[in-house]
Amino acid sequence: MIHSLAGGELEDYEIKDLVFVELEHNQDLCWYISGISKLKVGDTVLVPYGVIDELHKAKVLKIKNEVRNDFISIPFKRLKQVYKKVK
To answer: Considering only CA atoms, which of 17, 18, 19, 16 is closest in space to residue 61?
Structure first.
């Protein structure tokens, strides 16, 4: 929690790691929250996709570590999470 010098609360910030992926089945590009440590660009992951959150393989294109929720245009609550890394 961040406090102002006047003594009031400013705002609570969430910090998460995000990954930008390309889905193998339709080449869609999407952002996901990642809780997987040591994930690298080029890794293959399973991610939920669509209304029923069907799992699909996707390739990691970009990783953003420690992103604050006020620095992105999509709220964290609307992002889905990476399911697991595929070996």
So the answer is: 19
